[in-house]
Amino acid sequence: MTSGRVGSLVQIARREGLAKRYLTRLTRLAFVSPVVLEAIVEGNLQSGTNLQMLMDGRIALPLSWSDQGQLFPD
Fold first, then answer.
1. Distances (CA, A) of 11 to 8, 18, 24
2. pLDDT in tens, 8-43
C-alpha cells in the first residue's frame, strides 16, 4: 500500500485470495516489535500473550517499539 501499487487491503486480499478480515488481522502483526514477536514465539512472555491475541486486537499495542517493550518487560 505504501508503494501505491494497491489502494486498499481489499485489493490485496482479492489478489492473494484471502479474506479481508484475515488480512486485516495479519496486518496488525506488521507493527509489533521484533523483540516482542520473538518473545511470544519462544513463549517467554509471562503475561501469556500470544500472536492470536495480537491479531484479534485483544491487546492494544502502542506503535512505538520501545513502548511495546515496556508493556511486556522481560
1. 5, 10, 12
2. 989 999 999 999 999 999 988 888 999 888 888 888
